[in-house]
Amino acid sequence: MIGRIRGTLLVKQAPQLLIDVNGIGYDVSAPMSTFYSLPEIDETITLHTHLVVREDAHTLYGFATENERAMFRALIKVNGVGAKLALTILSGISAEDFILCIMDSDIAGLTRLPGVGKKTAERLIVEMRDKLKDWGAATTDGAQSGKPGLALVQPADAVADAVSALIALGYKPPEASKMVRVVDAKDLPSEEIIRQALKIVAK
Prior knowledge:
The protein has helices spanning 32-35, 66-75, 83-92, 95-103, 107-110, 118-132, 155-168, 173-182, 190-202, and strands spanning 4-13, 16-21, 24-29, 44-53, 58-63. By secondary structure, it is an alpha+beta fold. The chain has a five-stranded mixed β-barrel with strand order 1-2-3-5-4.
């Protein structure tokens, strides 16, 4: 099991990262909550990781904090929730708001997330309520230090990147395009466009 990775950030194309570790490039999938705290390209990055091994693929998931990884691990233990859906949930809602949805049995709030239907929302509430009782303020234990990684890209590229990232997170192409169009994307990097689009959807 690979539990931690430290290296040079080469590429960030949500939800994928490429990290160079002593000459070896690691592809890492990360939630948007981690993307918001990334350093600039060519800077050093440290992520807490979880390796998912399947017959057809070995996928490494990376997180800015141990609590993000712990939440991911709790999610993939829920019946019907795989790693991709867990990543989508962590990208579309903050840990604090997710806990509130679970504790308040807020099915409507959970079903706003792509891939989460009513039955999945009900399972999340039933299976995670006891696990999250003592989570509390621990979810805010400090994200990775450093400035958010706002890559300098042309606005048009940033919009296309944002749409691609939302599709990768589970939104349908027309829905992803509509979400991005609502955002005033002028001069914004893709990470910020995605952040604002997800906030609008969560309302």
